[in-house]
Design a protein that fits this description.
Chain B: Keywords: Pyridoxal phosphate, Transferase. The complex is a heterodimer. By secondary structure, chain A is an alpha/beta fold. Helices cover 50% and strands 11% of the residues of chain A. Classes of the chains: A alpha/beta, B alpha/beta.
């Protein structure tokens, strides 16, 4: 009996405090604007349906929980997650034996690597080999217009070096935009006749950055089945819907375009961006696209055209402006014209020309433009100098095409090979002629063919001509193309040298093929 | 001291301050001829006559010097000899302004420490962004109704979908455009200690910029020129000039298809020796080094674990490879370990098969945070969890470590305990491109299987020469012992020759045979003394700027030795104002401001990139500017002890040594 009052007396202050704070809380709650509405709502909903209050309470708790959950939790809650104890994890860690980081080279790769020619001294039409110091005729390097070693360009480069140093030491966004870069961009745009252009610091990384800058998830890309590796990578990164058409077959392209249009009408989907991506002259086989026809299709079906002129720019047309000059098509009709400064102008880097909306967009969205240091200034001025050289001396391109004709005419008459590509292409691919045409069902043995071709290359090199196989990353490329040997022509060689060189190549082919039989 | 004497004796020098000043006048009046090559003909006697080198140490342009940018505020005394152009590489003779970049093994490795700003800063920052977004959308809405002509490129037009959707480009149009004047500023000349920026202004809210054609010389605390090798004068530039004469400008083709030159082999051998690996390969673009070689390392069935702040090039590379990728919290070793335990125990998703291999990709020095990777801990984890380790040393190579060999050097960890070391030449070496170094079998495989080898153009000879000469001068070149100073080339013309002899010790000097015989570096470069001075100056400058900003009360991120010093600004409006006010000071300073999406939304920052080319006076100038702007813009929210500016400037050496 006597205990109860003491207990209540000890609890008393606590209870009063609780009551006080409750009333305080209530009064502050009612002071809040709009609180009356909430109370009325809760009361009425509780009266109508007590179960609903509980449901809503659960909903609120769930919402809070979701908000508080870490967004980077991984798939711990996934149904495939297996709970392990710490000890078990330790055991699993001990048991796990990873593969080595790379698989060692196989014999063929080893041979491939050791047969790579290394030059010494000046790089140009007749370099010396490091292995034996002998001069060779260079039909492997990209020096179409023969600008390598040009004294004027060298002078310009040295002048730039003395004013700008070598590196630009920063990405274009952060004080890496040097005036000479802007000059070159303007020069390229003027040269081609587009509104603007943008300069990337590596040719290979240009188009694989241009494509994902425009093509996003849900967009449609229609591309040639045989586009080069850089385009394939760009398409892969873009995550767009991709449709392929047969290699350099514009009929097939039109079929694809029509079927896409049909599908879209059927689905009544929204209008998405649509692109046609192809190469001017294909790096793989030297085929040339029929540009006027392509533009006609693109305009008819309202696609944007991304054209890779990495091979044709600086090598085709009267002054090397590329396919647009050859076909006399205004470059403005090509939405994104991508080319290589490294190949065409014998410097380094790449560009994308188009309208200023197109180029400005890339200045923020082209990953390899934004996140990479800009190109060394002296390479930019060399390229500018190369452009003015091309403009002023159209005879270079005439000489180049004479050399192309010389080489093709000899190779066309050579036994055992098939010459691929367009006759204006500065790169000439040839492959072994299939002796048992269409008779075998078995897939062609590419590696064996590669070996034979490599024998020809080695034999040619031993006799003083530098050529190369058209190399591909087999297994990583989307389609497996026919093994070829690639000859890169140059205007820097005289007709006599070219005749001599192609004669040697012809002899090498004959020798190797004779040995094979 | 000995080194200094030596350089005194061997370089044509200007003995007095008066001769320095007269050289200034002479050079101004002299026509610009480039036929001189002063470094290749070092004078033997201590002649104090004004020779060709006077043209090398002062600028041609007649800037006024009230800013202290073109000529030093205090002219050099007769004791001091400088061979650099002050506007490219600052004159700083005081030996106390040096410091050694080295990890103290007694101290734990500092991880990413983040100081929180007061709440009102966070709230106002969020409100700023909210307002920008609301106003942006309002303008879009009304603009599309009433001013259609400005929105044609965002709306379907003539059957074409818009090239960029208004949603995707919203940030660029409505937020970035307001401060476009702080980005992509065209410059000219050398991106050294100072830089010439083109003046520009906009009359239509940054849609177009107007260039009157005038230029302003500004203090450059933005370029990645850590060791100050961005120079148009000096031994490296002379070597580059020689290489252009000898080799031309371009490599004309890819490495595997006829573009390989002896210079590539020389440079690769030197890089391998520099970083302490068996072999290395060079790619012509830094970004492409990651994006084209990572796919050759990992593929299906492998897992990449990547730091959340890794550079875009790594992300592109991993995405191209099609590999699974998991991220861990920036530099958080616990997060990494728990992730490792999870992924190894769970195996591949769904199938639960064990991973073929796990590759951990981290950066040595993070470009936006300035934080340093906790390499010792990672190496410990590597032993336990058996993953492969790829360290991207884009920013740390050359800039960290007592010998400039990167994070491994800084922590005194043998480089070969890392599987793959990647780095770039854009930053410390004043060149371009990147490298990957590792065991020979790995590099050989990458040569063949990487995308760059076949498809990308090889690095041009002038760039290779800049790499060789700057790297050799950092290493120092041992004088040739025998007369047979030939390259050790294997007889076959393989691309992968030029091996280092086995007795080579890392980190040692480069043997004379490792660099081409036609490169003749001036003595101060070839004995490595100047580069050592550069490394120590960089370490001092970095630490001083870090410590100074902290003591002024700013919130900064990053490691004290990191040449990247981010100063937190938070509010987007202040960020643009900061950059503009810095640029329009009496001594103009160009700074880099970065915001979302390069950083998390609230933590907008200005990023200083310290260089060895800066003098202590330059850092003082920057501190003073920050001090003033910090008061005006209310940026000082740090909690640590504060000092007045004068005290910081006076006690700089003490501050640096007791960090």
């Amino acid at each position: 009996m006597s205990d109860t009052p003491t207990l209540s007396s000890t609890l008393d202050p606590l209870l009063t405090f609780l009551a006080y704070s409750l009333s305080r809380l209530e009064s502050t709650f009612y002071k809040l604007p709009g609180s009356a509405v909430v109370t009325r709502y809760v009361k009425s909903s509780h009266q109508n349906d007590p179960g609903r209050t509980i449901l809503e309470l659960i909903l609120v708790i769930f919402a809070i929980r979701t908000l508080l959950q870490s967004r980077t939790r991984g798939d711990k809650q996934g149904k495939h997650f297996i709970q392990f104890s710490e000890k078990e994890i330790d055991e699993l860690v001990d048991e796990w034996t990873p593969e080595s980081l790379v698989q060692p080279l196989n014999d063929w790769e080893q041979r491939d690597l050791s047969s790579v020619p290394v030059t010494t001294g000046p790089i140009g039409p007749k370099p010396k080999l490091l292995s034996n110091g002998k001069p060779v005729i260079n039909l492997a390097s990209f020096n179409f217009a023969g600008l390598a070693g040009n004294e004027q360009i060298k002078e310009k480069a040295i002048e730039t070096l003395r004013k700008y140093g070598l590196g630009s030491c920063g990405p274009p966004g952060f004080y890496g935009t040097v005036d000479v870069h802007l000059d070159l961009e303007r020069n390229i745009a003027e040269f081609l006749g587009t509104e603007a252009s943008i300069l990337y610091s590596q040719g290979f990384s240009t188009i694989s950055s241009v494509i994902p800058a425009f093509c996003k998830r849900g967009d449609v890309i229609v591309a040639d089945r045989s586009v080069n590796f850089a385009i394939q990578k760009g398409i892969q990164i873009s995550r767009s819907t991709i449709r392929w058409y047969d290699h350099n077959d514009l009929k097939s392209l039109e079929d694809v375009l029509i079927s896409i249009e049909k599908e879209r009408k059927k689905r009544k989907g929204p209008l998405t961006r649509r692109f046609i991506i192809t190469e001017g002259i294909f790096e793989r086989d030297g085929e040339m696209v029929d540009l006027p026809k392509l533009i006609e299709l693109k305009l008819k079906y309202k696609y944007r055209l991304i054209l890779d002129e990495s091979v044709s720019f600086g090598a085709v047309g009267r002054t090397g402006r590329g396919l647009t000059e050859l076909y006399n098509v205004p470059a403005k009709q090509i939405d994104m014209l991508v080319g290589s400064v490294a190949n065409g102008l014998c410097s380094a880097g790449g560009f994308c020309a188009g309208s200023s909306i197109v180029t400005e967009h890339q200045r923020i969205n082209g990953t390899s433009f934004v996140f990479s240091a800009s190109m060394p200034p002296l390479l930019a001025t060399s390229a500018s100098e190369a452009i003015s050289h091309l403009r002023n001396t159209p005879s270079i391109l005439a000489a180049l095409h004479e050399n192309i004709d010389t080489i093709r005419s000899v190779l066309d008459r050579t036994e055992g090979i098939t010459v691929l590509g367009h006759r204006a292409s500065p790169i000439i691919h040839f492959c072994l002629r299939n002796t048992q045409q269409h008779l075998t069902v078995a897939p062609p043995d590419h590696e064996a063919e590669e070996r034979v071709l490599q024998d020809i290359v080695d034999d040619g090199l031993a006799n003083g001509v530098l050529i190369t196989r058209g190399k591909h990353l087999r297994g990583q490329e989307m389609t497996d193309s026919r093994p070829t040997i690639r000859i890169a022509t140059t205007a820097a060689l005289s007709r006599k040298d070219v005749e001599k060189a192609v004669g040697i190549v012809k002899a090498s082919i004959a020798r190797v093929l004779a040995k094979r039989r | 001291m000995f080194n200094k004497k030596k350089s005194l004796g061997q370089l044509p020098s200007m003995a007095t301050a008066t001769s320095y000043l007269s050289a200034v006048h002479q050079a101004d009046s002299r026509a610009r001829g480039h036929d001189i090559s002063p470094a290749s003909t070092p004078a033997l006697s201590t002649s104090s006559s004004i020779t060709s080198s006077s043209e090398d140490t002062v600028l041609h342009e007649s800037d006024d010097n009230n800013t202290g940018l073109t000529y030093p505020r205090t002219p050099p005394t007769s004791e001091q000899v400088f061979t650099t152009v002050h506007s490219e590489f600052g004159h700083c003779a005081d030996e106390s302004y040096r410091c050694v970049s080295q990890h103290n093994p007694d101290k734990p490795v500092t991880e990413h420490e983040i100081e929180e700003p007061p709440y009102y800063i966070l709230i106002t920052t969020y409100i700023s962004y909210l307002m920008l977004i609301v106003f942006g959308h309002l303008r879009d809405f009304f603009g599309k109704c009433f001013a259609k002509q400005y929105f044609t490129h965002l709306m379907p037009y003539d059957g074409y979908a818009p090239l960029n959707s208004d949603f995707d480009s919203f940030y660029t149009r409505r937020l970035k455009r307001r401060m476009d004047d702080c980005f992509s500023h065209p410059v000219t000349g050398v991106a050294g200690r100072t830089i010439l920026v083109y003046d520009r202004h906009s009359e239509d809210c940054n849609y177009t910029q107007i260039y009157p054609g005038t230029k302003t010389r500004a203090l450059n605390i933005s370029s990645y020129n850590y060791l100050g090798f961005a120079q148009a004068r000096g031994g490296c530039a002379d070597a580059v000039e020689e290489s252009i004469k000898r080799y031309g400008v371009s490599a004309c083709g890819s490495r595997l298809e006829g573009g390989s030159n002896e210079l590539h082999l020389t440079a690769e051998a030197l890089v391998a020796r520099f970083v302490g690996m068996e072999d290395s390969l060079i790619s012509s673009m830094g970004f492409a080094t990651n994006s084209t070689f990572i796919p050759a390392l990992v593929g299906k069935g492998s897992l990449v674990i990547s730091d959340e702040f890794n550079h875009a090039s790594i992300r592109v590379g991993v995405r191209t490879s099609g590999t699974q990728v998991r991220m861990f919290k920036h530099n958080d070793m616990q997060s990494l370990e728990s992730l490792l335990r999870e992924v190894i125990s769970q195996g591949q998703p769904k199938t639960h098969r064990p991973w073929k291999k796990i590759l951990l990709i981290v950066e040595g020095l993070y470009s936006m945070e300035g934080s340093l990777v906790n390499l010792p801990h990672i190496i410990e984890l590597k032993k336990k969890y058996k993953f492969h380790l790829f360290v991207d040393e884009a920013h740390s190579i050359g800039a960290l470590g007592p010998l400039g060999r990167g994070v491994c050097d800084y922590f005194d960890i043998p480089p070969r305990s890392v599987d793959v070391l990647m780095g770039t030449f854009t930053k410390s070496f004043g060149a371009a491109g990147g490298y990957i170094a590792g065991p020979k079998h790995l590099i050989d495989a990458l040569r063949i299987r990487g995308h760059s080898g076949i498809y990308a153009e090889a690095m041009p000879p002038p760039v290779l020469t800049q790499i060789i000469s700057s790297m050799a001068s950092i290493m120092g070149v041992t004088p040739p012992v025998s007369s047979k100073a030939a390259l050790t080339l294997s007889p076959s013309s393989s691309i992968s020759t030029l091996r280092c002899p086995e007795d080579d010790v890392h980190p040692g000097m480069a043997p004379a045979s490792a660099i081409p015989s036609w490169i003749s570096l001036p003595p101060a470069l070839s004995d490595g003394s100047e580069a050592r001075m550069r490394i120590r100056r960089l370490a001092f400058n970095s630490r001083y700027l870090h410590a100074g900003l902290k003591k002024l009360g700013f919130i900064t991120y990053g490691h004290p030795f990191s040449p990247i010093v981010p100063l937190l600004i938070y509010n987007p409006g202040k960020m643009a104002t900061f950059a503009r006010m810095m640029r329009t000071r009496q001594t103009p300073i160009v700074v880099v401001v970065v915001a979302y999406p390069a950083t998390p939304l609230v933590t907008s920052r200005v990023r200083f990139c310290v260089s060895a080319a800066h003098t202590k006076d330059d850092i003082d100038t920057i501190l003073q500017a920050c001090d003033e702007l910090g008061d005006i813009l209310d940026l000082k929210h740090g909690h640590s002890e504060r000092w007045p500016l004068e005290q910081i400037m006076r006690q700089s050496v003490e501050l640096v040594n007791n960090i």
